[in-house]
Design the sequence.
């Protein structure tokens, strides 16, 4: 089981979480960081995505966690990646989806905290699966 953290819960971050929960039993989303989104609104946006439609599973808030299909996801609101406690959640990889840390030098800020590694290939793999899902859905709807 690969444990991932998602930095940025906008369009791409939500898509990565959606694909992980719907199509990848070997990937567990354990933490999300977004300094600009309130936890309640995070749950609402994940549940009712304006592009991808309503999430077919259960989404709720329990204390300071986002609960998706019964699994609690830790939520943080840190501006500085070095302050995100990825390591305390056992995160193996971080999917950087803020659009801010677009170079290797900037993204390495995640490594100054508790994280050992971060990766973009996981995001690419998951996006390929979600693009397949969207293509299939559009074909079925036609």
Sequence:
């Amino acid at each position: 089981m690969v444990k991932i953290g998602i930095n940025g819960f906008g369009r791409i971050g939500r898509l990565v979480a959606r694909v992980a929960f719907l199509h990848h039993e070997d990937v567990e989303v354990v933490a999300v960081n977004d300094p600009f989104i309130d936890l309640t609104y995070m749950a609402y946006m994940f549940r009712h995505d304006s592009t991808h439609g309503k999430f077919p599973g259960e989404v709720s808030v329990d204390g300071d966690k986002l609960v998706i299909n019964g699994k609690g996801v830790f939520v943080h609101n840190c501006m500085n990646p070095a302050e995100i406690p990825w390591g305390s959640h056992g995160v193996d990889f971080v999917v950087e989806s803020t659009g801010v840390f677009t170079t290797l030098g900037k993204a390495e800020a995640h490594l100054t905290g508790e994280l050992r590694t971060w990766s973009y290939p996981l995001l690419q793999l998951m996006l390929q699966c979600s693009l397949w899902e969207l293509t299939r859905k559009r074909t079925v709807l036609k």
